[in-house]
Each structure stands twice: as structure tokens, then as C-alpha cells.
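Recall that a protein's primary structure is simply its ordered list of amino acids. Everything else, from secondary elements to tertiary packing, is in principle encoded there. The following example makes that idea concrete.
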Amino acid sequence: MAESYEGYCVKCREKRTFDGEVNVSESGRRMAKGKCPVCGTTVTRILGKA
């Protein structure tokens, strides 16, 4: 289920709204991961502990 999040695109150097999936990292943090709508680079946003 994809939801909209706002994250920082390192390649564009701007905050972008992207559609992403929520994953749990190895350290136990939830993160939204998706593609930048402008350049296509992977954008992540850390949401907090699961």
C-alpha cells in the first residue's frame, strides 16, 4: 500500500513528495522508501521505531 511522504532527494537537493512503501530496517526503525518523481533516485524517510 503506497502512501505519500515528503523526503529529501539528495540528487535534486530539494524536499520532494513521493509515493513509498513502509519497511523496517535492520536496526528496527520504520522507513518510507520510494522514487523521486523528478529524477528517479531512491528517496528514504525515517519514520521512527517500530
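The first strand starts at residue 3 and ends at 9. The chain is about 0% helix and 65% strand.
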